[in-house]
Each structure stands twice: as C-alpha cells, then as structure tokens.
C-alpha cells in the first residue's frame, strides 16, 4: 500500500490504494442505485448533490455531483473528508444514529479540537432537533455556501447522509427551506429505490422539474 520515496526518506500511498477506492465505488449497491438519480437531480435542480457516510468522526463523500457553472469555485470529490460536527452531512448523520453512538462522537469532538466549544456543540444539537422536526438541517460552515442534509438509514446497514448545496449565495432561512423541500422529496425517491433496487432504472425525469425561484 506504500511506495518508498528514498530521495525524501519517506513513504507515500501507492496505486493499490486507488484500486481499493475504485473497488468500493464500483461494488457499492447504494452508489449503483443512487448515482444516476443524483446526477439527474443535480442537473434538474441546478444544485450540488452529495452522499456521505462516517469514518470515525469525519464524513467521507461517497459521491459528489457538482453543478458548478464557474469551475474556479471550490469543488468536492468522492473520497474527500469533511468535519462531522461542522457540516450539514455530519449533523444529519448524527441525527440518524443511536443516542449512545451520538454521545460518544460528541465527546470526541470536545477532545479533538479547541474549536469544539459549548457554542459549537449547541449548534450541533440544534441541527439534530431540526432533523427531527423538519427531516433536514441547513448549515453554512463555509462563506457563501449553504448546505442542507438529511439522514438515510438502511435496515441492518450503515447510516448515510444525503445533501444538496449551493455555492456563491447569501444563506437565508427561506433559501434553506426551499432547498430542504427539494431534498426531502429527493430523499423519499432515493429510499423508494433502495427498498426496490429494480426501480432504479425508472426514468428520473418522470415529472416536470422545479428549480430554485432565485437566479443562480
């Protein structure tokens, strides 16, 4: 899994690691079912769409479809990690797991970073309550970016988090609510497909799309 870089007296990851990552993506029935739907939804809503799950106290993107008319803006790719406690994906994931596991992770946030203050933990708990009340939470942890996420829990399987996001915007409660409505409708569609994998081949554009009322 490592290459010996003798000139630098160090090691770096070898190509075998990339092969493992490719095998994960190609062998995942969840990605196989949801990937085409995510790409279609990103285009019809003109939004970024992502799917992630946890690696310890970080969230790892399994798929990231970026609707990005301006390539110079930040981009997220599959395999990239983001902080669980700061992001909508992480907070939605926390809302979808058992309370004991959630409390262990929150304790870990406190230990690993001075930034995990009482105020941040309070924000995390507010997002969890939002998921319980509305089905989703909205978070803007990067300037000009609004992300909305919801958990997807499979029977006897891992918990995933599905999100939609916009870049280069002024985050507002109204915008979060609008994207949240699109996300919940899409999440319901995803759960249908996951409960009946044969349904994943149904045309994603079966109904006329609605896009954001604001100009992007």
Count of DSSP helices?
A: 6
Q: Provide mean pLDDT, rounded.
A: 85
The amount of beta strand, in percent, is 15-25%
Instruction: Describe the strand arrangement of the main beta sheet, using strand numbers.
Output: 5-4-3-8-7-6
Main sheet overview: 6 strands, antiparallel
H-E string: EEHHEEEHHHEEEH
> Which regions have little confidence, pLDDT < 50, spanning 5+ residues?
199-208
Number of strands: 8
| Terminus-to-terminus distance | 43 Å
Structural class: alpha+beta
Spatial extent as radius of gyration = 18 Å
- Share of helix, binned: 40-55%
Q: Assign an overall shape.
A: globular
Descriptive overview:
It is built from 6 helices and 8 strands; from the N terminus they run E-E-H-H-E-E-E-H-H-H-E-E-E-H. Helix 2 packs antiparallel against helix 6 and helix 3 packs across helix 5. Strands 5-4-3-8-7-6 form a 6-stranded antiparallel β-sheet. The chain is globular and about 55 Å long. By secondary structure, it is α+β, with helices and mostly antiparallel strands.
Short description:
With 216 residues, the chain is α+β, with helices and mostly antiparallel strands. The chain has helices spanning 15-27, 29-45, 88-96, 99-112, 118-134, 173-195; strands at residues 2-5, 10-13, 48-55, 58-65, 81-83, 137-139, 145-153, 159-167.
Summarize the SSE layout with pairings.
Layout: E1 2-5, E2 10-13, H1 15-27, H2 29-45, E3 48-55, E4 58-65, E5 81-83, H3 88-96, H4 99-112, H5 118-134, E6 137-139, E7 145-153, E8 159-167, H6 173-195
Antiparallel strand pairs: 1-2, 3-4, 3-8, 4-5, 6-7, 7-8
